[in-house]
Write a structure and sequence with these properties.
It is a single chain. The protein is mainly alpha-helical. Helix content is about 75%, strand content about 0%. The longest helix has about 30 residues. The chain is elongated.
Length: about 200
């Protein structure tokens, strides 16, 4: 790898180990084997490098989810299931991979809390949001994201993004209180059915 790739890999590693707020330029240099001047040469600034590293790490999570769901689909050998079962199966896998990538999601949460004071970071999240919505629909429905139209991405992708964001917050505060995929399905059933209480036994 060249210095640009080394720096990106180093910044991603720092996000995993130190988080968004505590990572310094010297930390990145130490783990990447590059030098301080190369950050400015390749990325313009440490902040720009960190933004790219964060979105690259989030893309790694999405790729991991997609591979896992494709493997699940292959083992089911084309068996049909109802939408609730499919949702529960897929979100079970998503939640497992949240746990594996939780350091990156904590870093994302740290970064989001900085957007009011960082216009470039806010703009970067704003550019990524439509693509993220489209990608979530594609991943969770097993289709190419290019097939996801704008309206579907806006409605369903926003819903999935709200779930993802809520899960990240709850996992950061107390992983033991994160709802299971089954809980999510049951909650949606009660909401749509207008029955907040548990069904009578």
């Amino acid at each position: 790898m060249g210095h640009r790739e080394d720096l990106l890999a180093g910044a991603k590693r720092c996000l995993q180990e130190k988080g968004w707020s505590r990572t310094t330029a010297r930390d990145i240099v130490a783990v990447s084997g590059a030098n301080l001047a190369s950050i400015g040469y390749h990325y313009g600034s440490k902040d720009a490098l960190m933004r790219e590293a964060l979105f690259a790490a989030m893309s790694d999570w999405a790729d991991d989810v997609e591979r896992s769901l494709e493997a699940d689909a292959a083992t089911r050998d084309g068996q049909e299931d109802d939408p609730a079962e499919r949702f529960e199966t897929r979100w079970t896998r998503v939640l497992e991979l949240f746990d594996r990538h939780q350091a990156v999601w904590r870093s994302q949460l740290e970064a989001i809390l900085q957007v009011q004071h960082d216009p470039e970071l806010r703009e970067a999240f704003g550019r990524a949001q439509p693509e993220g919505r489209q990608g979530l629909v594609g991943i969770l429905h097993g289709i190419d994201e290019s097939e996801v139209d704008e309206e579907t991405a806006r409605v369903m992708g926003s819903f999935y993004m709200a779930l993802v964001s809520g899960m990240v917050v709850q996992m950061t505060i107390n992983p033991d209180l994160v709802p299971s995929a089954h809980d999510l399905v049951e909650a949606m059933r009660r909401i749509v059915g207008g029955t907040p209480a548990a069904p009578a036994g």
